[in-house]
Amino acid sequence: MVILITFLRGNPTFNPKEFFAKYRAALILCLCVGLNSLGQGSTAPSMPILATQFGVGITMVGIAVIMVPVGRLTMSLPGGILTQYFGRKPLLAGGIATIGIGSLCAFFSNSLLSLIGFRLLSGLGMGIFTVIATVYLRDISTEQNRARYQSLNPLSILVGSSLGALLGGLIASTTSLRVPFLIQTITSGTTILIIYLFLPEPVCNPTNKSDSVTLNDNILTKKEKLLGLLINPVFFAMACLSLWIVSHRQGGRYILSPLLAARKGFNISQVGMFFFATHIPQMIAVLVSGILSDRYGRNVPLIPAALSLIGGILILIQSESLITLLLAGIFLGIGEGLAGPPTVAYFADRAPHGLEGATMGIYGTLSGGGALIGALALGSIADNQSIETALWIDGLVFVGLICLVLIVTKSVPKVFSEN
């Protein structure tokens, strides 16, 4: 808590009561995001194994696992648009309710098809909740502290999903593979109560008349703003980088890295240690990146992010011992952690007035699309060439997109809505 206080204030001295009064909204939202991620993370260890019990192959298991990212891809943009008309809290609660209903139904599923359908339902709710959380953080922050605020979202996700994976794996191993779905249902219900009882509606809530986007607004003006957003070179470059960050995470880190480690002779326990070695440095890097982005500019963390990720891939490919495997995980975690906050802050900074939800919805859609591309494209390259080749392509695309961002941000107007 002390670290979070110092992180948000940028000042080591603080008054706890004054701090909570000022940062109440951010703290409560982080609690909601963390609880939701804990529930989602609790299903991760048992989900693939549960799917295999229906007597299907690995491809169908993969489809069942990837339904949540598919749902996020589908609903991120619609959720961002809807929040411009109905506010933040109703959409946050609605997304969580959809997640809870899907997980409860998944607990009672009696076929793989029904399990896939209910996981998709949870993914739709996840798409709504995740994008509204980023919009909410944009509402309560300024351009001077926005990267720090936006970094709280992935930080809360990392903490919640890490604890959830430990809890879900323990409970599934001692009870049933289905019980983690009940955990997710309980965390969803708890989160809904916290949202309605304690989470304040942001001051710049779109339902307020003074800062409102109503159905009577000039539709042509909105279209012009959106067109200016989409054709802006900075937006295009940041969109590609945001997409590939998730592609690297889903394909390079979650699929290719453990497969390469297993091929090198590392056991399941050591692969688990590799993932743990990526999470802790990533949490720290997210915090550091938020501070650097706000104080020195959005581009500053991107260069060390590129170097760290390439270094991690190089060490991973050459690793023959547990020490080098863990070292590779540390570098990969740092690289992804440093790259995250600047990209989402770019989107939040440049969202045209009245299209904040749609802009962050585009960001969420890119995240869902990146998960699919990472799993399919990098997996296909690994099948047709080699895992090492796929990892090198992953790293080179990552570095190339960072270079593109650095080039275009030097010559393009800063605020899209003013273009």
Task: Walk me through the structure.
The protein is mostly helical and 419 residues long. It has helices at 2-9, 16-43, 47-52, 58-65, 67-86, 88-107, 112-139, 146-174, 179-198, 219-231, 233-263, 268-296, 302-318, 322-349, 356-384, 387-408. The chain folds into two domains: 1-202, Growth Hormone, Chain: A (Up-down Bundle), CATH 1.20.1250; 219-419, MFS general substrate transporter like domains (Growth Hormone, Chain: A), CATH 1.20.1250.20. The longest helix is centred in the middle third of the chain and has 31 residues, at 233-263. The two termini are 41 Å apart. The relative contact order is 0.14. The model is unreliable at 205-217 and 414-419 (pLDDT under 50).
Give the key terms.
Growth Hormone, Chain: A, disordered C terminus, mainly alpha, 2 domains, 419 residues
* Number of DSSP helical runs: 16
Order of helices and strands: HHHHHHHHHHHHHHHH
C-alpha Rg (nearest Å): 21 Å
What percent of residues adopt helix (DSSP H or I)? over 70%
> Which CATH C-level class of the largest domain is it?
Mainly Alpha
> Spans with pLDDT under 50 lasting ≥5 residues?
205-217, 414-419
Largest sheet: none
Overall CATH architecture of the largest domain: Up-down Bundle
Span from first to last CA? 41 Å
Instruction: Please state the average pLDDT score.
Output: 82
At the fourth CATH level, what is the homologous superfamily of the largest domain?
A: MFS general substrate transporter like domains
CATH topology of the largest domain: Growth Hormone, Chain: A
Q: What percentage of amino acids are in beta strands? A: under 5%
The chain-level structural class is mainly alpha
Number of domains as seen in the coordinates: 2
Number of strands: 0
Shape: globular
